[in-house]
Amino acid sequence: MMQWLSNIYRLGLKELRSLRADPVLLLLIVYIFSFAVYAVATGAKLEVVNASVAYVDLDRSDLTGRIIEAILPPEFDTPEEISATDIDRVMNKGDYVFVLYFPPGFEADVIAARLPEVQLNVDATAMVQAGNGSVFLQEIISAEVTKFIAGDDTSTSLPINLVVTAKFNPNLQSTWFSSVMQVINNVTILSVLLTGAALIREREHGTIEHLLVMPVSPAEIMLAKIWANGLAINVAAVLSLWLVVQGILAVPIAGSITLFVAGTVLYLVSVTGLGILLATFTTSMPQFGLLALPVLVIMNLLSGSTTPMESIPDWLQTIMQISPSTHFVAFSQAILYRGAGLNTVWPDMLVMAGLSAIFFVLALMRFRKTMAAN
Amino acid sequence: MTDAPIVQLSSVTHRYGATAALDDISLDIPAGCMAGLIGPDGVGKSTLLALAAGVRKVQTGQVQVLRGDIRDRHHLKDCNTRIAYMPQGLGRNLYPTLTVTENLDFFGRLFGQSKAEREERIADLLKATGLDPFPDRPAGKLSGGMKQKLSLCSALIHDPDLLILDEPTTGVDPLSRQQFWDLIDRIRSERPTMSVIVATAYMEEAERFDWLAAMSDGKVIATGTPEDVRIQSGQSTLEKAFIALLPEAARQGHRDVVVPPRAHVEGTPAVQAISLTKRFGDFVAVDGVNFEIERGEIFGFLGSNGCGKTTTMKMLTGLLPASDGQALLFGEPLDANDMRTRQRVGYMSQSFSLYSELTVRQNLDLHAELYQIPVARRAGRVAEMLDTFALRDEADQKPDALPLGIRQRLQLAVAVIHAPEVLILDEPTSGVDPIARDAFWQHLVGLSRDNGVTIFVSTHFMNEAERCDRISLMHAGRVLAVGAPTEITKSKEAATLNDAFISYLREAAGDIEEMQTTPASSSPTQFRAPEPQRQSGFQFARLWAFALRETMEILRDPLRLTFAFLGPVILMLTFGYGISFDVTDLPYAVLDQDQTSESRTLLEAFSGSRYFAEQASATSSEELEARLRAGEIAIAIEIPPDFGRMLLRNESPEVRIAIDAAMPFRAETARGYLQGLALTYMEDQIERTYGEAIDTSGAEIETRFRYNQAFKSVFAIVPSVIMLMLVLIPAMMAAMGVVREKETGSIANFRSTPVTRTEFVLGKQLPYVVIAMLSFLTLLVVAYAVFHVPVRGSGFALLVGTFLYVLATTGFGVLISTFTRTQVAATFAAAIIAIIPAVNFSGLLVPVSSLSGGGRMIGLGFPSAWYQQISVGTFTKELGFAELWQNHVVLVGFAFLFIAVSIQMLGKQEK
Q1: H/E element, B900
Q2: CB distance A337–B662 less than 8 Å?
Q3: ipTM of model over 0.85
Q4: What CATH number was assigned to the domain covering residues B586-690?
Q5: DSSP conformation class of B205
Q6: Domain over B7-250 is classified CATH 3.30.565.10
Q7: What does pLDDT average to over chain A?
Q8: What is the pTM of this model?
């Protein structure tokens, strides 16, 4: 037993040394946990930000002016005026997502309670902004028109007073969401790639044969790879949460980092195991890359870290239960955003542990068979 | 040898980083004869030949080839058509998945030969080399000797004036070697004007050369005829002469290897192979091999590359399970999982297989620990190894920085650190210089005679074989003979062991197809003088040669092909189903503290909506909070106790709704839904109270969702996914296509033939453009059949746009491959550089019009953003060329830019 642990420890140290000696991989780790997290979190926002608006104002009244002035950053860019004949052209080119059209005599019709019609053209191919953006614009227009009629008196009484609060992210900032999810996606990508690459590199260099003629068992070799690469990724992930997410992006983290790290360890065992398993199906790095790419994309996109899990068809949700990433995302969201504790997240941890065991055993079964073959 | 020198070097120095491969060399290589460069690996032979062939760029000094300066571009072009270059490594310039004929056909096309001419030449060459029985065998499945013959054919297809062969016989069995040289002799007799320059590490081969230059450590140490060199040094053989010619420092400590007689040891043999057989599919690598190795014996294993030596050795270490038969170790069946067996065996594999990122000492430490040498003795044992194998001075260096000879000593030290009883060594001295080889053998002899270690060693060198107690000759998976070297020589009444080996090989020829090589007598017309051809300028035929070959290779790699077509489809299905911004079925729970008909009316508005999915109601605020925290519900609704009463009294009761905003997009959408729902409810209430509908707003807002009336995600996602797939996968595949040639070495064919950079780049790119277009068509079918997303606009504009786009993205891949060296780096670089602009800044998630600053610049600086508008425009916006032509123009620009820069960056000569 002591020998067993000592072998795993020694081989793991060797693994860390190899990693340290590979500048390309180190650069990849740094890049993916710093710049890539930052760029995606700040660049690709799923909320309505800077949405481009144009308007055609044939009324040129006080009311239309007030409406246009009410369309403000950060949700919207300052609206730009275009001529009525240009509507189709600019929308076809994708210059603007929203184009408002105020008919002549709009203000007069509002005052006369003739219910004039404002046309809101939405480029519905811009999915992320089109839906929520049009709701916002409708609200702005309604509010301005109501204010105009009521003469700035907003005390109209409504039958109920709806108080909507957004919990865990009161200002609905997508940076909070995408930065942390990006870290999680990167943990998945790196775990699979690093362990898989470590194994394939050993095979390409012939060192794996060397290990296999020594008094070292495949399980020891695999466990060494898992702990060493897992440790490196865990450190990188926690540093990224700390420096990039909490530090630079100023995202608050609700729950216990310790519990998160504990879950990450479980998750890492399962995905590094998966990395080894995938590596046993391929003989070279390019083949491995080609196999890993779709697996990683699926694991990341359908785990609930990009789009809501409810939006995925039920059958696909069921299939995705075998992906450890689905459980890890649920686990992380509960802890990091909602501050949940162990009593809430233990089922996900249990599943991750089970999946770890399954991947490990499968990889072990294939390991000896495929590693020594030419 | 009367003409001016064929190759003339003056003051040539060539460096790789800090090490000088060639150190101020001046050398005249005579024309019209067979000139040789001799010396071990790493002395600069290959660099010198590469400079002479024009495949490597001259750093300093003058290189005159075929009476012209190789640095002159026009002369280089001329040289490309007149020189044939065969790089080092078995079949290194061949394409393993292509057949014999296809390989030669490719080379013929490169030299602009017509179909009839190619057929004639191929037939002639195959006949002359005895390869004619196997025109349809893939090059990768040929034996080492046959590969070299095929390489030679491909070099001779254009009747070169100068033939440059870099170690053509390394790793080839003695008979094939002999046949190879005979073939060269015959070709030379038919084409007396042709000059040949050869490099070899086998000193005995150099005896055939007309002229030779011995090289050591980047310098020429002797030149002249073999006889001159022998006389100069006063030695009987070239090998000894070479050692004698080395500078004093390099020779230090060298003494001849003397093998003391072996004392017979009683007991079961150390190693026994009983009908050992290994099959890979229907290929029999090792066929019923039998032998015994006694304890303390040095047992040599001879045979060509690929004859089954390595496979046999791997079976004896337990690395490979035997298909049939048995391997016994000290009389017991070998059990691969028995850790005690592994303690008794030391193994050294063919290539260097220690950790190059660990120092010499760290490597020894690691192995000492893994072999469970007790802590107390560990340091002592490592020190002992450093001393015994003279590794002290290098203890803290990394293996990569060390010469091959020292690396092999380190491997041996590692293999014996646990004092094994059996040592299995797979070609430990391949490529090592004679002095280091002798030093290595001193160690082996010591281990056997002093420590009683049984040694099983494979080698190509006959002088090493002669030192063994017994040897076995292996060929095509079978053992031809076993015995003491002298017995084997005697049994064939041969003068040398080499001759005896050849004679055994000939005997086995009856049932071995390779031996049917009775070269046909060649007619004088066979190798004609070259016809004057204009080879310069762009030629479509050469482009086509590359495109055709690339296509054949892809077709024979099912994994790559599968990925090229299946990958995008799988990913489109994933994206199509997975990326949905249609938020529905939001789980919610209610805490209704009122329980009146009024509260129930309000709640009915929720339960009736498809956007919300009701969960079990809560009994307390804390419960709601906890369930929200656990992620079980997304919305918590709390109705106050006197809701109904207040509502009736018109007191505007407060309804509290909490949304889980962990995922902001979902929360934002949910909030929109809630507001809409509340508005409808209130209008209903007002209508009910006042008996008439009162519009609270003063104007109607007519929202028109253009291009996608149903407002479904797939209509936006599917066209964008096509954009994404047609950049990621074509770029990755194209990048690997070029880098793979760099890694396997077949890039030499681009460097040494008249093919231009433009022809090469476009030729390599063309198949990937076709694959990407086919992949596009499958995606189109999936979009229509699975997601019901038809092309509403101009299909032609889409098709043209796609073509231009894949031209740009494959061009991008080629561009990546010009500055990466390994396939790993190319894969990562292509994916990572492409993925950020394509996913984030090309309109997949956020419209480009909403991007600002850096993001916008990145987006517009990459073809994806431009193509996305074509894709979305033609799929959903019913657009055509009239609206999109500017995007097409920009894509043309990108394609042109990427390809032009690639061509510029791709060096015709290696640096």
Answers
A1: helix B881-905
A2: yes
A3: no
A4: 3.40.1710.10
A5: G
A6: no
A7: 85
A8: 0.80
